[in-house]
Amino acid sequence: MAAVDVIVDNLVALWRIQTVRRYFPYFVKVSWGWTLLLLTPFLLLSNSSFSRSVSFLGRRLLSLVVATAIWYVCTETFFYIEDMTGSCYETGTMDVKEFTSKFTCRRAGFHWDGYDISGHSFILSYSALFIMEEIAPMASMKTASMSTLPKMVLNLLYVALNLIIIIWLWMFTCTSVYFHDQSQKWLGTISGLLPWYLTYRVWYLKPFSPGLPPQLHPKQEKQHF
């Protein structure tokens, strides 16, 4: 228990640092970029070990396009809702200013108060689930014949993606504690869970879709070992 208390005290001290609290949202905002940076080469390497067909790899790459479209539509919708429900105030006096968007309000040095659905809860939950689905082929990679360099790169990307999942889950927990109210966090999280379910549990099972990440059937794995 003493060790746990030390960890908790250190974490509390970390979040009391104003610089950490100030720049934490900016790191989260580029989380989709980190996700794509690592996942794109992993997807190409892992999927090509099952098939080098251009049409197959093209379909699988479409999953990145679909996911990016989901990210863009959701975040833009959140911005729109915040603009439509907000007003601009002068910090301190709270006098209402005649600005109609968060961007112009903040650029003028004022404070915008609108219904801010948690984009952090959305992108962190969706990114973690998206990565989890797309790294699934690694379970069958032992049976694939790969040269040393591609296999080393694939292994490094796999480790990095698992670390990214841990980081996103940790940040999701921090967001749940320190940012937004409950309804904003719930809506953000549901916005991440719903498109994941509709794509990987419904649409990607259909013929006209990017398809699920390839994996060997258990019987095929036994034959290859």
Automatic annotation (TrEMBL):
Pfam families: FIT (PF10261). InterPro entries: FIT (IPR019388), FITM1/2 (IPR046401). It comes from the Eukaryota. One of its GO terms (cellular component) is endoplasmic reticulum membrane. The keyword Hydrolase applies. One of its GO terms (molecular function) is coenzyme A diphosphatase activity. It is a multi-pass membrane protein. Keywords: Endoplasmic reticulum, Hydrolase, Lipid metabolism, Membrane, Transmembrane, Transmembrane helix. One of its GO terms (biological process) is lipid droplet organization. It is found in: Endoplasmic reticulum membrane. The keyword Transmembrane helix applies. The chain crosses the membrane at residues 31-50, 62-81, 156-180, 186-204. This is Fat storage-inducing transmembrane protein 2. It comes from Solea senegalensis (Senegalese sole).
